[in-house]
Each structure stands twice: as C-alpha cells, then as structure tokens.
Amino acid sequence: MATLFKNIKELIQVRTEPIPFVAGKAMSELPTIKNAFLVVENGLILDFGTMASCPKAAFSEVIDATGKMILPSWCDSHTHIVYAGNREGEFVDRIKGLSYEDIAANGGGILNSAKKLQDTSEEELYQQSKERLEDVIKLGTGAIEIKSGYGLTTEAELKMLRVIKRLKENYPIEVKATFLGAHAVPTEYKGNKDAYLKLLVEDTLPKIAKENLAEYIDVFCETGYFSVADAELILKEGKKYGLIPKIHVNQFTAIGGIQAGVNHNALSVDHLEVMRDEDIEALKSTDTMPVSLPSCSYFLSIPYTPARNMIDAGLPLALATDYNPGSTPSGNMNFVVATACIKMKMTPEEAINAATLNGAYAMGLEGKVGSITKGKQANLILTKPINSYGFILYSFGANQIEKVYLKGKEISI
Ligand code: NIG
Ligand code: FE
C-alpha cells in the first residue's frame, strides 16, 4: 500500500536526523533534495532520496511530480478557529477610526464574541468551525492548535473545547486543544476579576481536566486584561492538572509576561509585537518557543514582531496565523509566511522553518510533523509547477498549492 512521488523538482525541509527546532543562524538553512522521490506508506514517510536512488519496486500508486515541489504541511500553532459568527461590524468601525482598544472598552471585542458563542448551540458552533478547519486544510495546514476563550463561562468554555475534540476526532489533521478561559474578564465579572479567576480555577479547570479536553493552558497577559500575577496563577493552576503553559504576551504592551512564561516553562510565548531588549534576553537558552502572528499585525495595523533582532540574537521563531474573529479573521499560512518575509525581513528559508519545524515544536508535535523525516506523518503540500520555493512567498496572495495530503491521503474537501 505504498505511494511513490517521483520526479519531484525539489523536496523541501528534509531532515534526515530529527531535530526539535532551529534557532538563530540555523533558521536560514533549509535542506532540500532536488530531483527527488518520496515514498509514503500507512500514512507515514517511509523513504526519500534523489531520483538516481529511486526504488524500482511496484507501488500501489505512483504520482509524477515533474516540475512541482513537495514540502511538509504548515504547522499552525496558534488559532482560535472555534467561534460563533464574525465581527465584521468592528472591522468597519476600525476603518472609520476606532481602535481595537476603543472597541473592546465599549463592550465589543472578545466580549462581543463571547455573547455570540454563548447564544450558539454546540452543533451550530461545530458546523461553523468545521468550515474554517476545512478551509485551512485546503490552504496547506497539516497540524493546528485551537484555543477556547470565547465562552467565558464554565459551560461555554466546555462547549468550545468539546467542539475542538469533535474536530480532532473527525478530521485527519493533528489538533491540539488549549484552555484560554483567562481571555477577557466577562461582563458579569466587571470590576471583580478575582472572582472570575476563582471560577476558572475552582470550577472550569477541574471540569476540563475531568473530561480531558485540553493539553495546554493559555492566558491573555496584557494591560487591561490579565496581569503578570494573574497569568502566573492561571499557569500554575493549569499545571496541577497536567496542562502545559502557553501565553499571549507583548501584543500591545510589554509588562513582563515573557519572563512569567519562561519561569513557568511555557512551551511558547505568542504575539510579541512589542519586544524590549530584556524580553529577547529572557528567551535566550530556554525551551520556550517565541511565536509571531504577522496576520494580526497586518489586520490591526500594529507593529510586527522584530523577527530580525530576535533571530540575530540566536533565538528560534515560529510563525502562526492567530485565526480569530477579532484580530485575524484569516487562517492562511501562505499569507503568514509571505508577510513574514515582506514585513519582518525574514528570508524564505527562515519563514518556512518557522512555519513548519518550529511550529510543530510549539505544539509538542516535533516528533510527528514539520519536516520530511522518515517515520513522520505524510502531511504534505504538493505545489503547482514553480521554479523555486521562494516563489511561494514572493507571489503573496496567490495560491501555489496543487494538492494537499494528510497522513498520506489526498484531501478532497
Ligand atoms: O490572539 N489577543 C488576544 N486574543 C486574540 C484576539 C481576540 C479577539 O479580538 O477576539 C488574539 O489576537
Ligand atoms: Fe491569539
């Protein structure tokens, strides 16, 4: 039951020896094999090499990739794709001059999405979310992290996480679930943040743990949302149930959230639009992956992560979409990598490493996806005929993907 891809113009992100992630200068190295073959069996990568060493055995399927390239599927380590409705109205309000902060202060923003989600049935929420998941799969995403955080009541947070679980069961894509109850203080708890934190810790968290609905715990550590002390409390309480920390930090202000994340061994610290020297310093020689979300910067017209300073300081960097109704209504990783090159001065090699190998690490999936390595899942992007892989990023806004494969199977949704 093996499939052979032959005459691949270039096989991209080939890692013979598995490595967890790449950092600093190593991010600019993207190993490839030109004129390559790839064999897939039982959903996994079985073999690869140059056409000169292509096995002559009979295969159940042979795919001629002449002129086309293959790369591992995108690994999108930060999304909020389970949400109800949309916030197009706020988009127009911002065009007319209101800021993201103004809108949130007027009861819009995350609270607007929470109201919609609370009023939406679990079935309807699943139907809306599955369309988004199918869309991003078609755009080449082969592993995805999805957060709760638009429920803001125990019941609605559980509803979101159950929808994530159902998506995970029903689609061949790798899905990781994150509990983000501390996303905003709900209207009913206005001025009483500590009572909301108490609810999360004493009621919501135990129920999530009991149903085994999340692997990660996240918190929006930001001025006007949750303080560093709040974040530390949430991460610490999550850890008691085996949830691994992740954290939204430094989106609008730098208040020490990165240091808190690092101190709690966060798997990733995400957003990083505003970075001080000490924030870069704090990330050095840690196991914490910095994650940048350039589509969010693009959509909100806020600064981009200073990727150059970070990579030049020797740090790794992952790229993700942040797909959500408020700050990034797009889950297109092709746009993310292009934007990282155009706006953040990352090279195509750095951007591809950041969106595959490093993204996989930020989901604890580096042993399963993110590179062309024997034994990893055959989650693959087959491009249209192109002359170089850099063209995928250069031709921003266009789609250079011909087919996508998850666990070795061509996806037709
Ligand atoms: O990651 N920053 C916090 N949360 C989301 C957006 C929330 C929203 O506006 O709905 C984000 O950008
Ligand atoms: Fe986010």
From TrEMBL:
Task: Name the enzyme's class.
Answer: hydrolase
Which residues are listed as membrane-spanning?
Answer: none
Subcellular location per UniProt equals: Cytoplasm
Q: What is its main location?
A: cytoplasm
Indicate yes or no for the key word Iron.
yes
Residues binding N-formimidoyl-L-glutamate, per UniProt: Y150, N324, G326
The positions annotated for binding Zn(2+) are: H78, H80, H248, D322
Give residues annotated as binding Fe(3+). H78, H80, H248, D322
Origin superkingdom: Bacteria
Which cofactors does the annotated protein need, by name? Zn(2+); Fe(3+)
What InterPro entries does its record include?
A: Amidohydro-rel (IPR006680), HutI (IPR005920), Metal-dep_hydrolase_composite (IPR011059), Metal_Hydrolase (IPR032466)
Q: Name one Pfam family in it.
A: Amidohydro_1
The annotation note on the cofactor reads:
Binds 1 zinc or iron ion per subunit.
The entry lists its GO molecular-function terms as: imidazolonepropionase activity
Q: Which residues form the Amidohydrolase-related domain?
A: 69-410
Q: Which residues bind 4-imidazolone-5-propanoate?
A: R87, Y150, H183, Q251, S327
Q: Which reaction does it catalyse?
A: 4-imidazolone-5-propanoate + H2O = N-formimidoyl-L-glutamate
Keyword list (alphabetical) reads: Cytoplasm, Histidine metabolism, Hydrolase, Iron, Metal-binding, Zinc
EC assignment:
3.5.2.7
**What role does it play?**
Catalyzes the hydrolytic cleavage of the carbon-nitrogen bond in imidazolone-5-propanoate to yield N-formimidoyl-L-glutamate. It is the third step in the universal histidine degradation pathway.
Q: What family classification does the UniProt entry report for this protein?
A: Belongs to the metallo-dependent hydrolases superfamily. HutI family.
* Protein name from the UniProt record: Imidazolonepropionase
- Which species does the entry assign this protein to? Flavivirga amylovorans
